[in-house]
Structures are given as structure tokens and as C-alpha cells.
Design goal:
Layout lengths: L3 H16 L8 H14 L5 H11 L9 H16 L3 E11 L5 E8 L3 E2 L23 E2 L4 E5 L1 E3 L5 H9 L8 E5 L5 H10 L4 E5 L27 E2 L40 E4 L1 H8 L28 E7 L3 E12 L4 E11 L11 H16 L6 E8 L7 H9 L1 H7 E6 L8 E6 L4 H8 L11 H7 L35 H6 L4 E7 L11 H8 L5 H18 L9 H18 L8 H27 L4 H13 L21 E3 L7 E3 L1 H8 L6 H26 L12
């Protein structure tokens, strides 16, 4: 069946071509050529092809390290080869909890009751009966067998454990019961272990996801009483393989030997941790007899939540989980650029899943396969190289992409233009994204030239019409304090939880994440084709739409005369984030000020606006000197690296960007200017002079690069007035 999306879209393509404003980065004559390339590209999409790929990718469960996942790897490689891309497969040997091993939870006093840790088989969902589906589990759990009392710790956040302590409630030697939400599950375990807990049970509460939000599965899209969220617990102070920080986990039997940590020296959790559905957790909660919980801690189950179970309630928790070396594979398809082969546009998504992964992640995988096919069908190759990457073992700690970045770090430093992440990118009908400053305009302009299916609106107009304009998150990533701009949709900040981390926060490569979100049964066995077809998108038109946005961004980055970075956005966003950092410190040091840094940012703004004005003049003149343009593009590729600091963050030197990091307490949220945020979290002023000096140096470096480009374009430019160190 031919996609009705394509047929409908073609009727409006001509209209969009005429309505399209100037495309950033192109001369007038080359914009006309680019518009024709994009029109040609937008005839290539097919709902049927997208649907077929999604079905092939997610017909069986495929955990990292399993034969089923290797079949997914081979399918991805085969599709990209047939599309005309050169395919390389990068193996890495990582230290991993490959399987759940043994886990059980039971109430042993005042009654004996085993608690269910598997989703039910549902008659109308044929996928729920597959024998390869696992019980609920958390990889990188400690091994242990404990029978003891219970303490309820709300979300298990740092502040929740601090509040328990302030209320005189000890978790030492006890099992902590915490609900999902508020932070990365690994930090629930980390904070509990630090407080002396003997084990942790994490459950999904219906107040957060379940019947209090709507009708439950299979009738509705909300988690039911046996839905279990799986997930990694890994909380080492770097991203990637836990035994090879800063170095790629190259194959153990390969020619190059990598020094690995002894597993006993890695910061693995030692206590047992396992997830439960609320249908099992309620059997513990309803038998608790301690004091009532404070405001904000009450969940959605029909009972009064209590802090302690009391001595009459005993729970048995056992987890036996082995770790071993597991070979994983990164699949990289390359469409070599016709003019600038050593300038790389990189798009990626992981392919391993906790079960089927029909939304998370493989809706993004299927979209990238159709992208490869559409680009391969174009009569003219892109000018810059496009790499389409499929990462392994993301679900266990964003491992595969981090290992590839560490392996390719020198080449990426020299060649990477942008990394665009599409994890779970077609998971609903609500469009949104998060981005580094320089790629925000690219995302906005691309959405202005793509039609939203079955409407007379562009994706941009549909995005703008959403309340708040934010992505309906499928992957559970929060964005802290996005910079709000009038007449612009909200674009979030990149946090943790997916494969942009190593590119953006370690290697200093401009990055974005975009796509559609909606209903989710996150990390459960029910994230399957039945759920996708019934609740996510039965028409399969969103795949082609997202691919059109993604392809438009990729082609514009690949073909632009001047790389279409939003240079002045650095100043806009920096000013906002500096004021936010100042506010955080002022909470405990009332006279604190970042005025000196803001003064630097004001000069940066003037030079950036001057640069953008001169670029517009240059592109309008059609007088493009190839040598000058090449020099400017090289400077542009280096802008983001101004924020790289060899000292890194105090909570982990692997995180080298002074601009952005994942929150080291929650794991998911974004920390902008993280050195400031970390100091503020400690309510400390001791390191502020050093932090200010490092940021002044970074802003000076960024400004110097822009001044250099302005000088190459002719005329004078402001300096930062001799900022020191």
C-alpha cells in the first residue's frame, strides 16, 4: 500500500517552497538548488516502508548481548548496505549484567506471600506470551539475600533520604521501598546504599503512571497493575563501559590491548535491587503501620502511605545477578560527501531494548533506516558526509555510543559538525526537541518546511500550538530551565539518559534530540507492536513526517555554504543560564553576582550579531571565496569546544563541558553551567573563584573564535577587554 502521507504531502510541497523564508547558511542561488533537493527528498518517504522496518526490528525481544539483538544488528546493516551506504561494525567488549539472573520478593511476616515480578499474558496482545520475555529486573544490581523491615522513601531522591534522616527514620539494615520518578533509578539505589539500606524495591505508583492518569492497558495506554519498568542502575562517574573510563572497550581478543579496571575497583552497587509493579508493591504498603508520610509523599494507591512497616512486617528480597564481558556492536553507515568528505553530519539511535522496543528505541531505528533509503535514492550526493549510527547497550548505561566516541575521539574532534539523536523518535504525535544553542535555529527552520500529516499546518505550527511546546517525553528525560523566546516553541536543554551524552558533554560536539512523543509503557514488556498500533500511531504516518524533519536538517547541514549554526544564540542562552546559576548561589550567599561574566557575554553577543550580519551580506553577494568559507566553517566547527575544560566536573572529570551535563543527583535532568550547579548543590563558595575563572576563559575563547571569523570577513570586532584566565 502506498503511503497516503506522501500523496497528501506532495500537494503542499510547491506551496511550502514559495512560502519558505531564506534558509540559513545558503547563498541565494544555492538555496534555490537546495529547495529542489529537499522537494525531491520529500517524495521518497513511505509509511509502509517505515511500518515494515518497525515490524522487522521489534517482532521479538532483543536485549543487548543476545542472539536476537545480533539479528537486529544484521538487519540494520543489510538495509543500509542495500541503500548504498558503506557499513562498518565496531565491536566492543563491555562488562555487563547480561540477564536478570534470579530475583524474588515475598512478604514473610505477618503472612507468607510471594510477589509477582512478571507482566501478565494478555489475550489480545500476542507478543506478551513470548517465552523469551524476562521478569522485571535492574541491571548492575548487587547480589544479596535479605529478610528485614521496610522503609518507604518516596522517590528515593537525595532530598527524600535527607528528609527521612531529619524525621528520625533510619533505613540502616532495612529494605527501602521507593517509587519510580524524580531521578534516575540508579541514584535511588546509590542514596539508599549510602544511608545503610540492605536492599531496594522500586515500583511504579499509579499517581505517577497508571489509573490516576487514565485507563490502563490493554484497554487504555496507562500502565496496569502488573506493568514493570526495567532499567539500568549504573552510576559510575563517567558514561560508558564501567571498566574503561576515557578509553574504548576494544575487543579483549583484538590486537590493541586496553587497560581495564578490576571489577572490584569499579563503583558497582553492592545491595540487591529489583523493580515491582504496583499490584505487588501494594501488598507491602497496605501492611505498613508506621507514621503517616509527609505532604507530597502520598501515592495513588487507596491507602494511607506510611514511613515504616514496623517490626511485625518482614520482607524477603533476593537478587543473584552475575556480571560478565559481553560483546556489543555499533553499526555505522556512511554516505560519503561529494565535496567535503571529512566533515561529518552524524545521526544516531540505539537498537537494543528491554523487550520489544517498539517505541523505545526502535521507532527511531526504523526512522533512521528509512532516512538511509531516502538519502540513498537521491540522484546527487550530499556535499558533506552523513553518518547514520545504531548504538548497542544504551539501555544498560549509554554504553555503545560512549565507547565509539572514545574510540573515534580524535577524528570526531577534527571532523564532526553535529550529532543528532533520535532515541524513541516516533513515539506519538507530539513534536518537540532539546538542543545545544547553535542547532536551535536549524531545528525550527526544518519544522517550518515539513507538513504535519492530515492537516493544513506545518510541523512548526503544530509544535507552536502545543501547550508549552515541549516534547511529550517517551524516554523520561527532563529538561531543566529551557530558554524561553517569544514566538518560538520551547526547546529543551539536553540532559542525561541517551546517546548524545558522549558527543555533547565529553567531546564538545553540537547536539540535538528531536522527535514525537506520546503514550508509553516505558521499559515494560508491553512496549510492543500491539501497543504501538493501538495507542501510538495506527496510520504509521508519523514516521515519514519525522524522517522529513530529520532529513531536512541533515541535508541542510550537509549542503550549506556556511554551516547554519545559530551563533548569537550562545550569548542569549548563556545570559539566561548565568542568571539561573547566580540565583542558585544567592540562595545561600545573598551578595553573589555574575556581573563580570554577563559583561563578557554582552560583548560576545555584539560580536556574534556582527558575524551573522556579515554572513548574510556575504551569502547575498554570491561572492563566496572557497578558501575563506572553508576557514570560517572550520572555526564554526570549533565553537562548541570552547566549553571543553580538561579539568572536567568535580563529580566526574569525564564530563568536560562547562556548558552542559546530566545532573549527577538525578541522572536524567540537564544541568546548565554544571560546575556552578554542583557548587550550589553543596551550598559552597570555596570553588566559585576557580569556577568563574574557568567560565571566563571559555567565554573568552568562544568570543576569540567569533572575532577571528569577523576579521576574516573584514572589519573590526570587539574584544573581551583582556579577561584573565
Amino acid at each position: 500500500m502506498k503511503s497516503t502521507f506522501v500523496a497528501g504531502g506532495l500537494l503542499l510541497l510547491g506551496m511550502y517552497a514559495h512560502a519558505q523564508k531564506s534558509i540559513s547558511g545558503f547563498s541565494v542561488s544555492n538555496q534555490s538548488k537546495q529547495e529542489k533537493v529537499e522537494q525531491e527528498y520529500r517524495t521518497k518517504q513511505s509509511s509502509e516502508r517505515y511500518k515494515n522496518h518497525l515490524q522487522k526490528l521489534t517482532s521479538v525481544p532483543h536485549l543487548a548481548g543476545t542472539p536476537e539483538n545480533e539479528k537486529v544488528r544484521d538487519y540494520i546493516a543489510d538495509v543500509m548496505r542495500k541503500a548504498g551506504l558503506q557499513v562498518e561494525i565496531f565491536p566492543h567488549d563491555i562488562y555487563l549484567s547480561k540477564s536478570p539472573g534470579e530475583s524474588l520478593v515475598e512478604v514473610v511476616e505477618p503472612i507468607r506471600m510471594p510477589l509477582n515480578n512478571r507482566e501478565f499474558i494478555i489475550k489480545e496482545d500476542k507478543y506478551s506470551a513470548d517465552p523469551r520475555l524476562t521478569p522485571g529486573w535492574n541491571s548492575y544490581s548487587g547480589t544479596g539475600d535479605v529478610t528485614t523491615e521496610v522503609v518507604y522513601a518516596n522517590y528515593g531522591r537525595k532530598e527524600d533520604f535527607e528528609q527521612l534522616k531529619a524525621m528520625g527514620i533510619s533505613v540502616k539494615g532495612k529494605i527501602v521501598l521507593a517509587r519510580y520518578g524524580g531521578n534516575f533509578r540508579g541514584y535511588k539505589a546509590k542514596h539508599a546504599e549510602a544511608a545503610g539500606a540492605a536492599g531496594v524495591i522500586i515500583y511504579t505508583d499509579p499517581a505517577d503512571n497508571g489509573y490516576m492518569k487514565g485507563v490502563t492497558f490493554p484497554e487504555g495506554s496507562q500502565p496496569n497493575d502488573n506493568t514493570i519498568q526495567r532499567g539500568s542502575l549504573l552510576t559510575v562517574d563517567y558514561t560508558g563501559d564501567p571498566l574503561t573510563p576515557f578509553e574504548p572497550a576494544l575487543p579483549l581478543d583484538g590486537p590493541k590491548k586496553i587497560k581495564r579496571l578490576d571489577p572490584k575497583d569499579a563503583s558497582f552497587h553492592k545491595i540487591p535491587v529489583t523493580p515491582l509493579p504496583w499490584g505487588s508493591a501494594v501488598e507491602i504498603l497496605k501492611r505498613m503501620t508506621g507514621k503517616a508520610v509527609p505532604a507530597g509523599w502520598q501515592g495513588g494507591l487507596p491507602l494511607a502511605y506510611r514511613l515504616e512497616g514496623g517490626s511485625e512486617l518482614k520482607v524477603h528480597l533476593k537478587v543473584k545477578q552475575d556480571k560478565e564481558f559481553v560483546r556489543i556492536y555499533q553499526v555505522v553507515g556512511t554516505l560519503t560527501g561529494s565535496e567535503f568528505p571529512d566533515e561529518w553530519i552524524i545521526a544516531g539511535c540505539h537498537y537494543d531494548a528491554w523487550s520489544y522496543g517498539s517505541t523505545d528505541p526502535n521507532s527511531g531505528t526504523a526512522m533512521l533506516l528509512t532516512l538511509a533509503e531516502s538519502l540513498g535514492k537521491l540522484p546527487q550526493k550530499p556535499k558533506r558526509t552523513v553518518k547514520i549510527c545504531h548504538w548497542d547497550a544504551e539501555e544498560h548505561g549509554v554504553i555503545g555510543s560512549a565507547e565509539w566516541v572514545e574510540q573515534m575521539r580524535d577524528e570526531l574532534t577534527a571532523k564532526a559538525v553535529a550529532y543528532m539523536n533520535y532515541d524513541a523518535a516516533v513515539s506519538g504525535k507530539i513534536f518537540g526537541g532539546s538542543s545545544s544553542p547553535s542547532l536551535k535555529k536549524l531545528l525550527i527552520e526544518a519544522t517550518q518546511s515539513v507538513q504535519y500529516p492530515d492537516s493544513n499546518k506545518t510541523v512548526y505550527e503544530h509544535w507552536m500550538a502545543q501547550k508549552g511546546g515541549k516534547r511529550g517525553s517517551t524516554v523520561g528525560i527532563n529538561s531543566a530551565a529551557p530558554v524561553a523566546v517569544v514566538d518560538e516553541p520551547t526547546i529543551g536543554n539536553l540532559g542525561g539518559g541517551s546517546d548524545h551524552i558522549a558527543f555533547y558533554m565529553h567531546a564538545g560536539i553540537p547536539s540535538l534530540s528531536a522527535g514525537t512523543g506520546g503514550p508509553t509503557l516505558y521499559h515494560s514488556q508491553y512496549d510492543d507492536l500491539f501497543f504501538y498500533n493501538k495507542f501510538v500511531d495506527s496510520t504509521y504516518k508519523m514516521g515519514p513526517m519525522v524522517e522529513q524533519v530529520v532529513g531536512t536538517m541533515s541535508l541542510r547541514l550537509a549542503n550549506a555554504d556556511i554551516l547554519p549554526y545559530d551563533v548569537s544564540r550562545y550569548a542569549t542562552d548563556l545570559a539566561t543560564h548565568l542568571k539561573t546559576a547566580e540565583k542558585a548561589v544567592k540562595a545561600y550567599k545573598s551578595d553573589y553576582s555574575v556581573d563580570k561574566l554577563l559583561a563578557q557575554v554582552e560583548i560576545l553577543k555584539q560580536n556574534a550579531e556582527q558575524f551573522e550580519s556579515r554572513i548574510k551580506t556575504l551569502l547575498a553577494s554570491e561572492q563566496l571565496d572557497k578558501v575563506k568559507v572553508a576557514a570560517i566553517n572550520k572555526e564554526l566547527r570549533d565553537l562548541e569546544k570552547a566549553f571543553l575544560d580538561p579539568k572536567g566536573m568535580a563529580y566526574g572529570s569525564w564530563y568536560r563541558s562547562l556548558y552542559a551535563s546530566s545532573d549527577p543527583y538525578s541522572g536524567y535532568a540537564s544541568w546548565m553551567l554544571p560546575a556552578f550547579q554542583y557548587e550550589a548543590s553543596l551550598k559552597s563558595t570555596a570553588n566559585l573563584p576557580d569556577i568563574e575563572a574557568r567560565h571566563a576563559k571559555a567565554i573568552e575563547s568562544l568570543n576569540t573564535k567569533i572575532v577571528t571569523m569577523n576579521q576574516q570577513l573584514g572589519g573590526s570586532a570587539s574584544s573581551l577587554g583582556g579577561a584573565k584566565n
